[in-house]
Design a protein that fits this description.
Chains A, B: This is Monoamine oxidase. Chains A, B: GO terms for molecular function: L-amino-acid oxidase activity; monoamine oxidase activity. Chains A, B: It comes from Plantactinospora soyae. 2 copies of one chain form a homodimer. By secondary structure, the first copy, chain A, is an alpha+beta fold. Chain A is 33% helix and 21% strand. Chain A contains 15 helices and 26 strands. In chain A, helix 2 packs parallel to helix 7 and helix 2 packs parallel to helix 15.
Chain lengths: 534, 534
Amino acid sequence: MNHHEQSAVSRRGFLRAVGVSGGAGAMLATMGALGLAPSAATSAVPAFRAPTRSDFNLTGRSGARVVVLGGGVAGLAVAYELGKAGYDCTVLEARSRAGGRNLTIRGGSVETDLDGHTQRANFSDGVYFNAGPGRIAQWMVTMDYCRELGVPVEVFTNANADAWIYNESAGMTAPVRYRTAKADVYGYVSELLAKATDQGALDDRLSAEDKQRLLSFLQSYGAIGGRTGGWAYTGTSRRGYLEYPGAGNDEGVPLGAPPALADVFASNVGRYFAFETGYDQAMLMFQPVGGMDQIPKALAKAVGLQRIQLGAEVTGVTDRGGRVEVTYRQGGRDRIVRADFCVATMPPHLMARVPHNLGTGVTAALAGFPATASGKIGLEYRSRWWELDQRIYGGITETDLDLSHIWYPSSGFHGRRGLIVGYYNTGSNARTYSALTPLQRAERAVAQGVKIHGDKYRTELATSYSHAWDRTRYLEGAWTSPPHGTAGYNLLLQPAGRVYFAGDWLSHETAWQHGSFVSARTVVTALHQRVMAD
Amino acid sequence: MNHHEQSAVSRRGFLRAVGVSGGAGAMLATMGALGLAPSAATSAVPAFRAPTRSDFNLTGRSGARVVVLGGGVAGLAVAYELGKAGYDCTVLEARSRAGGRNLTIRGGSVETDLDGHTQRANFSDGVYFNAGPGRIAQWMVTMDYCRELGVPVEVFTNANADAWIYNESAGMTAPVRYRTAKADVYGYVSELLAKATDQGALDDRLSAEDKQRLLSFLQSYGAIGGRTGGWAYTGTSRRGYLEYPGAGNDEGVPLGAPPALADVFASNVGRYFAFETGYDQAMLMFQPVGGMDQIPKALAKAVGLQRIQLGAEVTGVTDRGGRVEVTYRQGGRDRIVRADFCVATMPPHLMARVPHNLGTGVTAALAGFPATASGKIGLEYRSRWWELDQRIYGGITETDLDLSHIWYPSSGFHGRRGLIVGYYNTGSNARTYSALTPLQRAERAVAQGVKIHGDKYRTELATSYSHAWDRTRYLEGAWTSPPHGTAGYNLLLQPAGRVYFAGDWLSHETAWQHGSFVSARTVVTALHQRVMAD
């Protein structure tokens, strides 16, 4: 019994206990509150159970030979899970390392993009740059794989009260800290709602008791005055201080009175607040210690490095009825691998270009997944001035500049050097940057970052490395927006003869490793059931 | 030039740069936004500058002999900073280890409280329990000391969307996750304010443009419908899922429709939301890796262990005019130490009992600081069921039970065992627990925690250790509420002859190590100036 099963069992045990003491209503409420899976009868998908060697005992069956196209997270997870039962898997990966879009750049990393730009990362020892996925939510199955594979995790700093907000297009001439922006928005929202409530404007919706409770909440939430003060928001220590309180009679120097209500809403700082409440982005978020690629590294090790062919570009897939033949080119030579089954986890728009005999419907379906552009730049600094000068220990600065997001590092606090993600953008903003040379990208990102952080953003810069996913060979995109519900999408959820498809692009969590893992598990389950029924 | 000075210089440089390009208004706005110190002219307190050996060069002066009463954070910081310039410090600490209320319990820790209860911690290797301070805000000078002393820090998980809220007295029969509670409260608040705004109830406060911006914000913030839908909040994925989205066509099973507005406000879950916006509690927060006592350990090492007398109970302080004599009892023998100056950092209500010749005004002033009760219990579990079963990786569960807060561990994720702080309470709730035996405290805490977490809260428990600060020898309290602004408080900010007073109790950040450090720095500065002027 693996730990997933243990968890499932113990959840059920807990729910039974709650059910006994609290009745069905309490049990349902608890389930909802716990975010637990409903019972098997209502569950959309049964819990994953990895194939095991014991599945084949006494049946005379054994693990089949499987060729996996693509050594990203989905492909590695397929080989890993099938490998538990003794399947003989071969992973074909076109790039020079496994992991796919789970890519961590360190000093010495070299890559030439589709435009011929070659970059060599000159990062210092211990400095890394997660060019692909950077965060994991607590509920994601990615966390379970980290645990199972022995990949330690630490907090990813997805939100920080001391990070900046800077909306240039809204007329802001200086950045404002999240804590200040929140205090002011929550303050004015509370003031307005308290006034309307107290004046009876919502009496058709609120009982007298509701009103009292709401007003009490708003006074706490917004730090506003009471009725006699007109429920006014006039500022709060939550805005932060020019100088924080100190010794003796030093009460500190508060930031002072807030801007006028109209100015606060005109600055549009509130547009970023919902992010932190997203089911997939709310803190706490996590990352592997030492770089996101610790996950594919651990997967690859568990699969067996000898099973993973690197630099292996797939050139053809042929279903022969009783077996599958996959041709690929590696080291200048054409090769072939024959297997009982194939699992194709390559990006769909690239798989669509691979010659195959699976039917034109498959090709059309694969071509129906659009590729999203996204890019990041890693800026290594000679000092951690953001910690020393600005007291920002991690988190994300949000902007309406074309760099979009700036990430401060979630580890190595107080270290000598550190790496800031100087832009993380998508769509047209990403394409703006990917059209530039790596040097131009760095210049553009730094010029904008200086507006927020001051000169050190330029003067302390040691080196940089940018990654444009749309211009990356063998990937050509960051992620897709799957055509959920279309006939094409559904077609690829079924095997085409002996060829299965898997990847985050066949899930409802695209762009997350969670999506890769759950898709891999689904295919592993289907393939294993087929073998067991054979 | 130490790094604090460097920071100050670079901040000024940055401000100058902003001032040049943006004018004085922009500069002021930037300063406010940055949370930077105002210029020396308006600064309440000049930046701290540690004494150095070079201060004595060419002047013929040298560091004086100083006896420090109390080896907590303030006392150690005084000895550490004075030691940089060659002052000859002796620290007298009554307890068996330095650190004062900065106390980390590990396996083997033994202590007998004022009621004669002896506890021996049976925690496993690597498991620790911060019985005293547990968190540090980014802006606190405590962070600078961690950096300077080489104490690595990591995120303290002060808030987690997947932690629970449980208000038993409000009629809740099951806990609710923060993410769910926030989605519902923000949703209904947004709905109500959008309705009132759109109906013109706030037209005297809002321009047409304000209204449009506010409505746009509320739709994003509350995930509410538009005008045609009556701005209604009907739930959102932010509430969380029974089953999170998966592969293929698995969109997941959302938690579903929210409770009615009246029920949400009746549950009073919103009372906890303001905590996360506090200037001293907003995430990101930090802790030393491996236990909060890494700070006093590093301080003590830097001071020199030979300078710290443990088990040394101060029995008298006499100012002889030209010197100070402090008598103490150690190992059953009466001892004396003579010094040029004394810095008393003991808890004021205990210092008030020490015989001295500093005047009755000093005694009365010291006695004017009330002692606050507070307690915690560390519950070590055989498994990290909160991570495995409930997907809670750190954070704090808030309750209206007398246990108040439950802390999940901020480190050791996915480890074999882990320690939950099963209660952290103050005042009457703390006294309720401190009146119990350690076993009774554990039983009470577990019985309440089971209501939230289910049976594993009891069945997986391995061992526990509780700490009641009001019943702790040589401390007799967790912290104080200083009588700021009184003549007594101000009296103790000045030296009584050759005796200075320091501690978080003489600051505006009582109960925080920041308060201890800034108070220590103030006294170090004053004492050093006196020596230099002598």
